[in-house]
Amino acid sequence: MCPIVPSHQTLRKATRTVTAGGWKNSLLAAFLVGCVGCSGGAPTENSSVVAGAKAGKRFKVGVSIPAADHGWTAGLSYWAHEAAKLYPDIDWTIQDAKEPGDQISALENMQTQGVDALIIVPTESAPITPVAEKLHAAGILIIDVSAGFTKPASDVFIEGDNKAFGRESAEFIVKKLGGKGKIVVLEGVPCTVNTDRVNAAKEVFKVNPGIQIVAEDSGMWNREKAEKVMQNMLVANPQIDAVWAADDDMALGVESALKAAGRDKNIWILGGGGMKDIVKRVMDKEPLFPADITYPPSIIGVGIQTAAGMLHAGKENAKKFMPHHMVIDLDQVTPENAKSFYFPDSIY
Known about the structure:
This protein is of the alpha/beta class. Helix content is 39%, strand content 20%.
């Protein structure tokens, strides 16, 4: 058996819906979240179609996500397929893309196929925004998940609270270092997720002048890239006390670099995402990973359920009641509570 929500309970426990005016409606969010079942493994193909039942109106919905080249996006693919199974009366096309250009082509092809809605997790925010604007203007329901567009181009935007992610992770570092120390920062892919996390963390570090950022670079959400970046940082900086990494995949790359340099005994890492391997190590009180921040790949299921619900209700009618912006609460994982966020059978 696998959990309703992998790696933690965030989507079951606390979802907030927020419009531009600040309105909140937890009941509506709870209705949209529902339950995501676990009836099988994810297909291995880059593109698949989940066919629905013949009875009733047929909708066509496309799901466009980044390629499963690291743990979090692999979880994204798994949960997209699982959530699609809840709606057999809809024909789902689920495709992944390695680069923005590939994603743009895939989205345009889905438009040609006559989709009624698109759930999009942008590979990068800026290059995907223009095509999203074009598709939205063409009357396609657009649900933007996790990484936001740079302009209004969606009917609903669903994200985790990335500002809280950055703020809470930075506050943990400041507290653990006693307000004084040298750290390095590893950013992810250029997108709103990365921007919100990094900017919020830097705001905390800025008001704690005893914390010095001695190096900063991008690991592009990639373990191998993060390892190489960290190797360079270690060579250039004889003293580093802690590493702030924008996600858990990069944190594992950092670990490899630290061990190869023999510096894994006096430097520790704080990443995020709620990867089960990291949560287990927090639970076991490994000094290298004292804490983590959750960010569930099952967030894609909220996007899929939102699109299905709006189509079934009639998208124009549904828009009257839907908030444009839904923000999902995140959690800080520590040795004291890690057991509640550890699911060994989770995909991520």
